Amino acid sequence: MAGQQQLWGGVECTVNRVYERYGDQIRLSGHENRPEDLERFAELGIRAIRYPLLWERISPEQPDQCDWEWTDRRLARLRELGIRVIAGLIHHGSGPHYTNLVDDSFAPGLAKHAQNVAERYPWITDWTPVNEPLTTARFSALYGHWYPHLRSEGDFWRALLNQIDATRLSMRAVSRINPAARLIQTDDLGRTYATAALREQATFDNMRRWAGWDLLCRKVNRDHPFWARIAGFGLEQRLEAILDDPCPPAVIGINHYLTSDRFLDHRLQRYPQHLHGGSEIQLYADVEAVRVLSPASQGLEGALREAWERYRLPLAVTEVHNGCTREEQLRWTAQAWDIASRLNDQNVPVEAVTIWSLLGSSGWNTLLTRPGLYEPGVWDVSSGAPRPTAMVPLLKALAASDERPIMATGEGWWQRQGRMAHPPVARPAPIAEHIGPPHDPGSARPLLICGATGTLGQAMARACSMRNIPFILTSRQQLDITDRSSIEAALDKLSPWAVVNTAGWVRVDEAEAEEDACLLANAHGAIALAQACDRRGIQTLSFSSDLVFDGFKGYPYVETDAVAPCNSYGRSKAAMETGIAQLAGDHLVIRTAAFFSPHDDFNFATAVVRSLERAEAVLAPDDLIVTPTYVPHLVTASLDLLIDGETGIWHLANGDALTWADFAKRIASYCEHDPAQVQAVPHQTMGWAAPRPANVALGTCRGPQLPSLLTALEHFAQHFRAERLENAA
């Protein structure tokens, strides 16, 4: 049966309420006003899509007032494209304002909505009336994160039963119109591990995770461990009604994330304060199991096996997503597909693997309680327009059983020793799990990084090492970009899949007296390297500078602005850009500015900190505006763009445009020094040989943006705080 599972897709479509505010992921992703997204989805080869026909969106004011305009157009197009619709009616929601999860009107109200939808679209066969009922009940009625913001076990059970009743009644209403209708019931499925002192809590959690499916499958009878507990909240008649009229799913939909498996530890001192919590009778730390257990938790494969053993019903992986660097997104998806294939080979039926967050998601780092970070999906919509990532060729390859992108191979961070964030805890497991799968470090073509001695080269190597991207970092002796024969020999010998050029001339003021040498390194050498790669079909990544601009624009420069350098260094970078732009292959050029890193003693920010530590005054210009760039953020985003196969010129900086003097003052504040030690001066007093443009703030018309400068400075300062603590010890 290997490879017979289908590829499904899903649009993050949560409409959840927090007090009086509704959050709508469809609007946040831009899919609300972009029907052409459906053509993009079809190109992946997906056979079905989890798609929103949400109660809150179709009947927001009154149950019988339905607005079908948005869904009519999109569902008609999905039918034309041959993509089966899996209809979602509530997605982490509590319904429109006239009901909520613990209201008696909720279940019959959703059933009425289901009837309306089925009458409008009688051809829809697959349904998920309520997405993740157990998870939604926990977040809304036990933890109080979402509306109606309740925090009691009785309210949790009532919210869960209401959603189960809503599912049963909805499927009854749909089946009267389409007798072939199937219920695909989703929920997050993880496992709780714990220290011996917390075994009872872990046992309870591991029973509760099945409660939604157990209710639908008629497993919650009077002998069930939870019957008396739920009945004790005055809900026995509700249990009896469900027992008398169950609604077993046609497919058990498993949503599993790297955070789904948890570990509970009574030894609070081993973990930071923000991980401390507990129940009414015990305090404990609740952490991601993957960050502490050795070997790691059972993961997705274990969750699927457990679900099959418990229900013996067909399975589907109904959400696959990993908010991480691009190669880790690829690996997580590829591994999920392979797990499904392996289980099908072993006669565990996994009908499909669903790629979730096709357009990404926003705010899950805050559990949707307030605005939060955007995580790219298969497309990155951070710039407003969908940009295909490396996930697109991977999914096309999976759907067609073709060769996968090279970065989809290798161990993910969840399989490497560096995943540990806390003191390891041994997990009893067969010896094979302790050893792990064999790994051949020479199996993948490497990424070649030129420039072993520079800040960017070292940072690239550090990032690749952490991200398990095979790489080779070359010095000038191994690959001299000013020597064409050296370039040819190195490329033929190493056979990289891509080349990152961080080599070149970096001394801006010295370039004024040595312009030919600067031009040789930054332009002629860089172009020769790109040309050699072009002939071999090898991608390249090169770095340019804000100094290609003259500073007269008056507001941030974007990628399409014309260059007009005012010094020798800027002219060398502009010449490099022009030469590479004439090549036909896949060549990416990142313009950046004023980069800083705690791992480099020769950048402005570190020099400021060292001077302040010595109680020395810092002189910084107050008449030159730049956009500082944090090197670790720059490297992460640059590698993601390279893996995505992006080409052309991109601007990457940490957002804020400010003078060097203001930058120095912010550094002082974040690193716990006195900003008054920074003296703002005209740049002409600095003794610089090279002319400087007045305002070379970088913006972008392409995206993505790096994290904020505030975030960058906080990360930068953490390094020096840790250094002080280490020195004090």
Strand order of the largest sheet: 1-4-5-6-7-9-14-15
* Multimerization status: single chain
Major sheet, described briefly?
8 strands, parallel, barrel
- CATH fold descriptor of the largest domain: TIM Barrel
- Helical content band: 25-40%
- Please tell me what the overall shape is: globular
How many helices? 22
Mean pLDDT value: 95
Helices and strands: which structural class?
alpha/beta
Detail the poorly predicted runs.
438-442
State the CATH class of the largest domain: Alpha Beta
Can you describe what's shown?
Strand 14, helix 12 and strand 15 form a beta-alpha-beta unit. The strands form ten sheets. The chain has an eight-stranded parallel barrel with strand order 1-4-5-6-7-9-14-15, surrounded by seven helices. The protein has a six-stranded parallel beta sheet with strand order 22-21-23-24-25-30, sandwiched between helices. The chain is globular. It folds into two domains: 6-263 and 295-406, Glycosidases (TIM Barrel, Alpha-Beta Barrel); 447-728, Rossmann fold. The longest helix is centred in the N-terminal third of the chain and has 25 residues, at 153-177. The protein is α/β, with parallel strands linked by helices and 729 residues long. Helix 19 crosses helix 21 (660-670). The N and C termini lie far apart (60 Å).
